[in-house]
Amino acid sequence: xxxxxxxxxxxxxxxxxxxxxxxxxxxxxxxxxxxxxxxxxxxxxxxxxxxxxxxxxxxxxxxxxxxxxxxxxxxxxxxxxxxxxxxxxxxxxxxxxxxxxxxxxxxxxxxxxxxxxxxxxxxxxxxxxxxxxxxxxxxxxxxxxxxxxxxxxxxxxxxxxxxxxxxxxxxxxxxxxxxxxxxxxxxxxxxxxxxxxxxxxxxxxxxxxxxxxxxxxxxxxxxxxxxxxxxxxxxxxxxxxxxxxxxxxxxxxxxxxxxxxxxxxxxxxxxxxxxxxxxxxxxxxxxxxxxxxxxxxxxxxxxxxxxxxxxxxxxxxxxxxxxxxxxxxxxxxxx
Length: 335
What we know:
alpha/beta, about 10% strand
């Protein structure tokens, strides 16, 4: 496993991050395919044994049980001091919350709640899960900087935003002598490359870490189209992201399969090897520990320049999908 620094921080992370959206109580939240605690612990332990030290979750995953499972497993495995824990908070999402909490008070509450669920005294990377249109960005930066100074978080990042929003926020942080966002987590893979227009060039310029989610497009880049899994059958969110672009995406998937067969490799190795040439630490999710093996192999698998071009040349512009494509009213209504 290779390691790198998280943007401009001194936090050392593995080049792959284990996304923990699939961990948590399946009876809670929106992911009915989430795995049990014992399975979660096994996956986390196996990932750590294979060099992955970076774990990402969120307060919204399975009604907070995702954080609880991750924190409990890390504690029972005795590896808290060896790993980097990232979690995300959801901006105030109802009129009741807007009337009850200020932006700063809500962030403070979310941090304290996540610390309790993770059973830790600090969060290594704290992430705004989507752009907060209800709170002035200066207020957000002040609250996050205060939490960092208090030792509750080591650094903070953002997810699901536009390049201009991130640039504006970090310019304001410099002007006001506050801490900036050090990372961005967004939807990026071989089938969704819109971040290459502005997000990626800006992040390269300012050394902002890029930790994309949906690295394997909900499994589309890791298995043949005819192969089905429980998540394939139940994951309506990913069907919403990729359902409208099946035909153009299928042409790219066929090239992933072609290179994998030619190189005697897996589709996972090919897809992640491509992404590792673009991003700091792609986020990969697992529902069984055997999937970790493929991820780790990908970290040591390298594509030629010709293979990279071959994978890229069929891509056509896609509409933005998911949270980033919603307007503020839709975001608040769907959370």
